[in-house]
Amino acid sequence: MRTLTVETAGPLTTLQDLGRPGFAHLGVPRSGALDQPALRLGNRLVGNDASCAALEITLGPFVASLAFAGTLALTGAVAPLRVGGRPAPINAPVPFRAGDRVEIGRAVAGLRGYLAVDGGFAASPVLGSRATDTLAALGPPVVGVGAVLAVGPTTGDPSTVDVAPRPALGGPITLGLTWGPRHDYFAAAGDLLAGTYTLSNDSNRIGARLGGPALTRAHQRELPSEGIVLGAVQVPASGQPLIFLADHPTTGGYPVVAVVDPADLPLLAQARPGDTVRFRGPQQ
Question: For the segment 148-165, what is each residue's pLDDT rounded down to a tens digit?
Fold first, then answer.
């Protein structure tokens, strides 16, 4: 059988694909891989369609045994990889034999790795997606030790590249912004561009919490609950920005000062607690 059995799951491992956008009117977040370029690359390396599900592994370590022969690829965070007891490259197609173990160490740069296997993981889709939504509890459960994950049939040939290029990870990141619908709720929304923030330990797939210069409200008028989009920068009563990620709620009552450029969200997906975050305005 084409299955993978988990022996070590790390702090958080979930199944993720490109998500389920388009259901916000039902109160359903989009979910999906936080670093979608890494997911797409992994699928391309093993010959999958871009929409196939892979494992999103937060930090690691992760160990599993494979009951079939095929091809895998590890993308995203930089981590030591061994397949069948032998060192293997990341960002590259790696063949494996039936009975081999895949061993992924703790990430040394970045935070989230993506393990793609030819055929993709074959969990039952919910609203058209196999993504695990940690807020709404939709999709497959969080992957734990002892989980046996089914893998679909091979549909394409693996890539012939030796190693695919990927952006360097680690260090300060700068996120582009578009001003949001409630930037006028703040005395000086532009202070967001001048400040230096730190990613908090409280960050997760729902949102990235930042610590740094607080934004001061120009007034205290209450807001009705409003729609929230991916990358929205919401400012709660503390004045500390919160950037909503893939498992974000679909509505919220705190003002949204700005929205992060979607092209920059993979940088945030790979940032670690303690990393420095700055912002760039639309004209910079």
Answer: 999 999 989 999 887 888
Radius of gyration of the chain (CA): 20
What's the predicted TM-score (pTM) here? 0.95
Burial of 103: CB neighbours in 10 Å, binned 0-12, 13-18, 19+? buried
CB 43 within 8 A of CB 54: yes
Q: How far is CA 52 from CA 101, 133, 213, 265, in A?
A: 22, 16, 41, 21
For residue 89, give the nearest of 102, 109, 74 by alpha carbon.
74
d(CA 116, CA 154): 12
Burial-class residue 222 by CB neighbours within 10 Å (0-12, 13-18, 19+): exposed
pLDDT tens for each residue of 163-186: 888 888 888 999 999 998 887 878
What's the DSSP call for residue 95?
E
Tell me if residue 264 falls in helix, strand or coil.
Answer: helix
Beta strand 173-179 with 276-280: parallel, antiparallel or unpaired?
parallel
CA nearest neighbour of 241 among 223, 266, 220, 216: 216
Specify the residue for token string 């709620």.
249
Give the separation between CA 173 and CA 278, rounded to whole angstroms. Answer: 6
> Could you give the CA distance from residue 143 to residue 201 in angstroms, rounded to a whole number?
22
Sign (positive/negative) of CA torsion 106, 133, 269, 113?
positive
Beta-bridged to residue 108, according to DSSP, are none
3-state secondary structure of 43: helix
